[in-house]
Amino acid sequence: MTRNNTSKTCPRGYHDIGGDAAGAIPRTELAWLHWEKQTEAIRNLLGDGTRRIVSLDEMRRGFENFGAEKYKALSFYRRRLDAMIDVLIEKRVITCEELDAAISEKRAVWLKAADQETP
Amino acid sequence: MSSRNHKHDHFHDDHESLIVEDDAGNLEGQIIIDALQDVLIARGLLTAPEVLKEIEKLESPGVHLGAKIVARAWTDFDYKAKLLENGKQAIGDIGITVGEAQIIVVENTPKKHNLITCTLCSCYPRSILGQPPSWYISKAYRARAVREPRQVLAEFGTVLPDDMELIVHDSNADMRYLVLPEPPESLLDINETEMESLVTRDRLIGVMR
Amino acid sequence: MGIAARDHRFQPGDWVKVRHLRKSGHVRIPFYVRGKRGEIVNFCGSYLNPEDLAVGNTAGPAIDLYRVKFAQRDLWPAEGAPEHDYLVIEIYDHWLSSTDSSGGRQ
Question: Shortest CB distance from C44 goes to which of B164, B169, B174?
């Protein structure tokens, strides 16, 4: 089974995998983690009828534009989170700088908590 | 994004079917979404109680709702006809709110089997069944279910007779799909709760008969 | 959305072919059905085009959406699927052209 994406007129996205060769189906049942729920919840809120800030299709465009390497390296919900952020920055809803600052702040809190746990 | 770390220490090859975050990756996800939430709250775009309420909303649907729909269709012929005609409306009629544009209910019969997938991402009737199982979002399932569905079914222990019709539904656009499994041979000896317990998630997706 | 009353181009049983549109960006018609012939199953209503929604355009127009049925043997000739195995997928009107059952299919 080879992946036919040679058509010059129709680019085939790396997410468009129907019919590709792949191994056995992994039958793992993973728990749905809090950050994953929070990601979905925030995307739903941003896409709802009163806000209309990030639609599902905009988010999909986000991860379809990541580049194959990043797409393949990220888990399902991490893809969605990063794509949502890309769209929010692109649409100037938030800035990269303010998000970076908020991330540093959160990271510091976690590091401090981890420090306190280790005797 | 300078501080959004997505560097993974573990090795990913092209055939890795399901990318799972390690502990560090999960912590990173939590840090980033908490930070994003703070920024969005500071900008007045949402509130923390709204996020909590939305998480509750995401957690409430599940297979139990699918089971309720199926048990009703098994026991009420008119309801089944309505369900096959207009899934969203019939499901709404029994008090289940459907968020999707439409639910197409596809019926398994002794001669016909239906299987649901989404090759482009992981579309799933989330407002009824909740989040899809991990294997549903795996590359292997998304890639193979449309091309070699009988082999995929066999991996789940479902071996279809050659003369049974098989329809694969790729949920690529606005519709979402729910399989109506075949009822047990006799519905006389079991109550509704027992009936609902026969309806599993895997039967509603169609990987089991 | 999902306005069923308006006129639409195809009826159940009509043969259609999926066009090879030169579209980059976000599209919802997978590569494996492009250029393939299939049969209309039903009209699903009209929906905003995901290609527009992906770039933040919510002004429409709404596009007719159909479920289309393809023989597995036509999609994947090398797989040797039974003749009664099908795939059903949703295709927006602008990706479809009219055809007949004979083209390329016995």
Answer: B174
Element containing residue B201 per DSSP (H, E): helix B201-205
Nearest to C94 by CA among C31, C51, C57: C51
The runs of H, that is alpha helices, within B95-159 are: 126-129, 139-144, 149-155
- ipTM for the predicted complex comes to 0.92
Q: pLDDT digits over A34-82, tens only?
A: 999 999 999 999 999 999 999 999 999 999 999 999 999 999 999 999 9
pTM: 0.92
Cα–Cα distance between B184 and B194 in angstroms, integer? Answer: 11
Pairs of CB atoms within 8 A across B/C: 76
How many Cα atoms sit within 13 Å of B183 on the Cβ side? Answer: 18
Q: How far apart are CA B86 and CA B77, in angstroms?
A: 14
Which residues have CB under 8 Å from B11's CB, separation 6+? none
CA distance B77 to A84: 44
Task: Cite the active site residues of B.
Answer: 118, 121-123
In this prediction, residue A115 has a pLDDT band, given cuts at 50, 70 and 90, of confident
pLDDT for the residue C72:
98
Query: Given an 8 Å threshold on Cβ–Cβ distance, is C25 in contact with A61?
Result: yes
pLDDT at residue B124 is higher than 70: yes
B95: left (phi over 0), alpha (psi -120 to 50) or beta: left
Helix, strand or coil, per DSSP, at residue B116: strand
Q: Which residues of B touch A15 (CB under 8 A)?
A: 120-121
Taking an 8 Å cut-off on Cβ atoms, the answer to whether A102 and B51 are in contact is no
* Residue in A33, A38, A75, C27 with CA at minimum distance from that of residue B137: A75
